[in-house]
Amino acid sequence: MMISGAYATPFPSPLFGPHAVLQRDMPVWIWGKADPGEKVTVRFNTIHVETVAGSTGEWRVQLPALNGGDRGELIFEGKNSRIKSSDVLVGDVWLCAGQSNMERPVSLANNAAVEIASCRESDIRQFKVPIPQPGIIPGKLIGEWQCASPETVGSFTAVGYFCARELRRAHNLPQGLINCTWGGTPIEAWLNPELLEANADFRVISERWSKITADYPARKEAYDVAMAQWSERKKAAEGDKKPFNEKQPASPVGAPMDRNTPALVFSTMLRPLIPSTIRGFFWYQGEANWQYPREYQRMLHAFIKDCRSQWRMDHLPFMVIQLPNYGGDGNVCWTELRRAQKSVSALPATGVVTTIDVGDPKEIHPTNKQAVGIRLSLMVRRIIFGEEIVYSGPDFIDATTQGDALVLKFNTHGSTLKIKDPAFGGISFEVAGADRIFVPGQARVVGDTVVVSSEKVKEPVAVRYCWRDGPGAILYNAQDLPAAPFRTDDWLN
Predict the structure, then answer these.
(1) What is the DSSP letter of 484?
(2) Distances from the Cα of 38 to the Cαs of 9, 28, 29, 140, 400, in angstroms?
(3) CA distances (Å), 184 to each of 277, 337, 364, in order?
(4) Distance between CA 43 and CA 63 in Å, rounded?
(5) Cα 232 to the chain's mean position, in Å?
(6) Staple 59 to which of 53, 72, 263, 275, CB 3.0 to 4.6 Å?
(7) CA distances from residue 104 to 40, 90, 114, 375, 477 in whole angstroms, order as listed
């Protein structure tokens, strides 16, 4: 950022520094700080707008809609200064938010060395929002834009980057990624504190957290003792040159600035981004909320609605990435969480990306982020840009009983159905009779339906598909996009 003149005001937000990407085809909010009452002029190419800083020194202007592909300098002029942000592009800007699987960088994705070395995508850029740290003013945004290159792309959000790469190739436009992620954070940390306080359904969350923080001092004292003992054993083992494999005690939950704190992420990471002009929201989060799927469903719907209110966009596009396969086929911890995520597809301008076949049963951070990014890009191109493409795998509609089988109907989104061998082992289709005991079923494609049966169930009444943490996904369309998990019953077991 080039600065001339006696004083370095008015300061723009770092979002509008060198190499920034501005959103095309809609008015763009620009803001920053200056001396109270100072006249501020913002210029971009032939456009200029003026305002006056308020009593606290904050100022905000709105540029008229810009054409995609435009390039130029953002210039900020005050009474004694002129600040220049060079190499600013106009394209599409995406807010990439969530926990560790959105945070996971290109350097930890499949074929990372090749992906990094071959990167020639300088029109894809990332702004990384830092996680809150003690001593940093809450809500103060710091950071800078980076252009994707072999030197930088390794730190980009992998899901965001691989999606942006597909979109740039499809549309030949710059792509901006605002990487707002924090591993391990539950959704309640992302919620607006006013929403938490006003919604009676969420009081249990605040009550639960109050108990955790009240018990923290005692847990911290016990942790300090355990940590001291662990350190002594480790030191003794090292002195005796013996292997030491004992796991370090886990830090207690409930400390100040704990990532589980309700509203913390919203207050410190999201709020400083409002009202940045963005094209859409990419959301990949849920692992931290698997214990409370019904709560999660209410919170996710409320979160989407509130983000649209905060950004003043009633139909701000929201793309949700469903949790992938993880764990054994005997577990059903993530299934209801996936259903909660899928429920938001009923909202306008909202899509849910199915990843049930590209996870890793033994690793909560699967490395095949390329497939996730590609599927996300297809969802974006169809739901946001209205392109007539096949963007989703089959979505279950209904089931009817025909003799000893169930006939399943799907929305194929203009494609056809097919059965494939599962990428991993695990149960795929299950059927049950009136006894509510599910057993593995055999499936075959008949035209635009799937017929499921089992020799063990003569009168089937219910079917489930991929209703396990780590199931065996077998149902796809012709474009190899997988069917989303589903169940036809509402039984408690």
Answers:
(1) P
(2) 9, 21, 19, 21, 70
(3) 27, 16, 11
(4) 9
(5) 41
(6) 53
(7) 39, 26, 17, 17, 28
pLDDT by residue (tens digit) across 283-309?
A: 999 999 999 999 999 999 999 999 999
Between the CA of residue 227 and those of 164, 214, 236, 240, what are the distances in Å? 44, 21, 14, 20
Do the beta carbons of residue 269 and residue 308 sit within 8 Å? no
Residue type at position 363: E
Q: b/e string for 287-303 if b means 16 or more Cβ within 10 A?
A: bbbbebbebbbbbbbbb
Residue with structure tokens 């799907």?
410
Q: Residue-wise over 315-350: b if at least 16 C-beta within 10 A, else e?
A: ebbbbbbbbbbbbebeeeebbbbbbbbbbbeebebb
Label residues 6-19 b or e (16+ Cβ within 10 Å = b).
Answer: eeebbbbbbbbbbb
40 neighbors 54 (Cβ within 8 angstroms): no
Quick check: 27 and 90 in contact, CB under 8 A? no
Structure tokens at 196: 């938490």
Q: What's the pLDDT tens digit per position in 206-221?
A: 999 999 999 999 999 9
Alpha helix (H) residue ranges in 333-428: 335-342, 369-379
Residue 406, phi then psi, degrees to nearest 5: -110, 130
Domain regions of the chain by residue span: 395-487
- Which of 269, 350, 362, 278 lies closest to 315 in space, CA to CA? 350
Q: What is the pLDDT of residues 375-411, one digit of tens each?
A: 999 999 999 999 999 999 999 999 999 999 999 999 9
Q: Can you say how many angstroms the Cα of residue 183 is from the centroid of all Cα atoms in its chain? A: 11
Dist. CA 317–CA 223, nearest whole Å: 44
